[in-house]
UniProtKB/TrEMBL annotation:
This is NitT/TauT family transport system substrate-binding protein. It comes from Caldalkalibacillus horti. Keywords: Signal. PROSITE patterns: PROKAR_LIPOPROTEIN. The lineage of its organism: Bacteria, Bacillati, Bacillota, Bacilli, Bacillales. It holds the Pfam family NMT1_2. The keyword NAD does not apply.
Length: 332
């Protein structure tokens, strides 16, 4: 968990900097800064909430920045560079394990499965997981949710990631696709739309879904510092209201309309690719239907973290999960 040392260093550097948690824009809307871990169709409901005006209906103007990695996203949140982070719940556990007077609270779940796919360099007429034995596997960052879920799934199929694979984990998150495209690895774990783009370009072939294999977990969740939630409970509520409306929209709307709604966030991606990716995620129910983070999912998350050797102690559900905003959004 070397990334935590990076966070602590950055926070120390920024202790002299005071940033406003939120402010009013010229159009009278309250500004909320969101740091997302990556830009992905996996997060479609967030972008729907922006383009369909659901945040604006709640009196909010949401500014989204992409941090490109869980460590960078959490650094941004802790150092007050963002009010809300969209990132894996494991990051809140890591911060809690290090000791903090201002824990990171998960208040609204966005996705409920892993969002990565196994991409093979060579096409397979039929795929079985044991074909990965003795292969070169380009994985994700140690301690990150993609890598931990990947290892969990491999173990479920009788593969020891450390002993049965040549596992590469020293490549920065944002550079993993380029590394695979340049010839590194026989298999790679990728998010969409990169996996589908590689398949379309003949660089690789999607052979399995880690999300379909791993079960339901709080994979990406909106979270904020406890202090921000205490001081801005109404803002958090209105933000959650908009997210829930977007979640309902995604489940009730034809894929083509969803794709058109989020296309402004993916200007370099063809509409047919966006449609294909949304369908892929919808089929495996990756989009959470409500913002409520369930306790059983929280426990499975920690089982996965524990198997990866990154969990120091079980963190109780009520310690880092707050469901009152999601419940009110649903029941209002």
């Amino acid at each position: 968990m070397g990334w935590l040392r990076i966070i602590l260093c950055v926070v120390l550097v920024l202790t002299m900097v005071s940033l406003a948690a939120c402010s009013s824009s010229t159009n009278g809307l309250e500004q909320v800064r969101v740091a997302e871990v990556t830009r992905s169709i996996f997060y479609a409901p967030l972008y729907v909430a922006v383009t369909k005006g659901f945040f604006e209906e709640q009196g909010l103007e949401v500014e989204i920045t992409t941090a490109w990695g869980g460590d960078k996203t959490m650094t941004t949140l802790i150092s007050d560079g963002a009010d809300i982070a969209l990132v894996g719940s494991e990051t809140s556990i890591y911060v809690y394990q290090q000791g903090t007077d201002d824990p990171i609270i998960n208040f609204a779940q966005l996705t409920q499965t892993d969002g990565t796919f196994l991409v093979a360099r060579e096409e397979h007429d039929s795929f079985s997981w044991d074909q990965l034995n003795d292969s070169v596997f380009l994985g994700q960052r140690v301690g990150g949710m993609p890598q931990m879920v990947g290892e969990y799934v491999l173990k479920q199929h009788g593969i020891d990631p450390q002993a049965d694979l040549e596992l590469i984990q020293n490549i920065d998150f944002s550079n993993i696709p380029n590394a695979f495209a340049s010839g590194t690895g026989e298999y790679v774990q990728l998010f969409e739309p990169q996996a589908t783009l590689f398949e379309k370009e003949g660089i690789g072939h999607i052979v399995a879904s880690f999300g379909a294999e791993s079960g339901q977990i709080p994979y990406t969740v909106f979270m904020s510092k406890q202090s921000y939630i205490n001081d801005n409970a109404d803002t958090i509520q209105r933000f959650t209201n908009a997210i829930y409306k977007a979640q309902q929209y995604v489940y009730a709307t034809p894929t083509e309309e969803i794709a058109e709604a989020i296309l402004p966030f993916f200007e370099d991606t063809d509409l047919d690719i966006v449609i294909s990716v949304i369908n892929r995620y919808a089929e495996q129910e990756s989009y959470a239907p409500t913002p409520i983070l369930q306790e059983e999912s929280w426990l499975l998350l920690q089982e996965i973290i524990d198997q990866a050797g990154e969990l120091e102690q079980i963190v109780e559900y009520d310690t880092l999960v707050e469901t009152r905003f999601a419940e009110q959004a649903i029941n209002q």
